[in-house]
Amino acid sequence: MTGFSVVAQNKKLISRTEVKEKVTAGNKSIRISAEAFKEAQADYRQTNSIFIPNITVAHTGFATTNPLMAFGSKLNQEIVTQADFNPDVLNDPDQIQNFATVIDIEQPLINVDAIYARKAAKNKMDALAFQTQRTKEYIDYELDKAYMQLQLAYKAVSVLEKTLEGAEANLQLAQNSFEQGFIQRADVLLVEVRVTDVQSQLQSANSNLRNASDYLLFLMNEPGDVVLQPSDSLKLDTITESVPMALSEERSDIKAMSLSTEAYKSVLKSDQMSFVPSLNAFGSYQMYDDQVFQFGANGYIFGAELKWEVLKGTSRFGKVQKSKASLSKAQLEYEQYVDKSKLELMKVQRRLDDSQQRVRLTELSMRQSSEALRIRTNRFEEGLEKTTDLLIAETQYAQRQLEYYQTVFEYNSTKAYLKFLTTTN
Fold first, then answer.
1. Distance separating the N- and C-terminal Cα atoms of the chain
2. Where are the alpha helices (DSSP H) in 180-273?
């Protein structure tokens, strides 16, 4: 009893609804998944560059006696005079300063490969959105299972506490019977061993309870300085729900894999389109002066460039080959994942049926062992029953109770898992 009293000191009552709210708000797996989506979203936003012009502004300054640079700088500053055409001045000019402010604009017009790269980024972003949704669904299932595990742990502690009370009462009876000469000392020792055994089991049950509480706190991202206690106890989930018998490809994780495959298709198309010419417009506005940040002269240039990289070594051929292999791999992984998911669904459906049958059988066995223990306890008090028979009946009843609650947990958790497998977005 000592172990349980220590556990009970910092107990905190909590409901399933409260757990779900805290997990949704603080679970790190959900937050990590959300950040991964934001990364993909940022990558997608970067592809806006295929539509939006690239504008740069630069201001440079230099001094030179280089003949070509000096004459060109005077032309840009619009200060060339007749004297500047003197061969001596052209060949050996005085130092001249030149300051230029240049505004460059580049506007993509037609870049087919970039368009497909943008589509691939969009598919990846959408896939991660579905993956984030699936992470939330999994954590929701995991918290349901953890909550039920905590309920089971409290049931185990409760059963063993009552078993210990009964064992201690039987020990008192055995000691009284021994003092009256009705039983041997060996019989008393057997009962004492049984009490010690139940105490050991209770200690283990308390440790399991603390472990279950700590895991739930971990899912909630809260410090483990308290022991949680569910506001409701473990009971058989008798709510009848219509569960799809076949796997839906609209499930979040399957949709995510499907979109990932589409992303690989777009990447392949992008690599193939890199062989197609690209068309881009450009423009530049320049302002020149011999003083810093002054704009005594100006000029502009604009045009368009049709660019076709006819041969870029063999790197593009290698990229296309790699993209084809990646797409084929992604398609096979998608098909394998769907097949495996179908197999898992059928297995869980059978497991749910088996669990339901085991619940009925263990419940019947628990009732039978309870009645057997009651009869043997009455006979033992009257001196008509052997100590060993009483201990066997007592042990069996405790085991049957634990087995029953374990099968209830398995049924409920399997039902929750089946719901997780058939949840569609």
1. 48
2. 185-220, 252-273
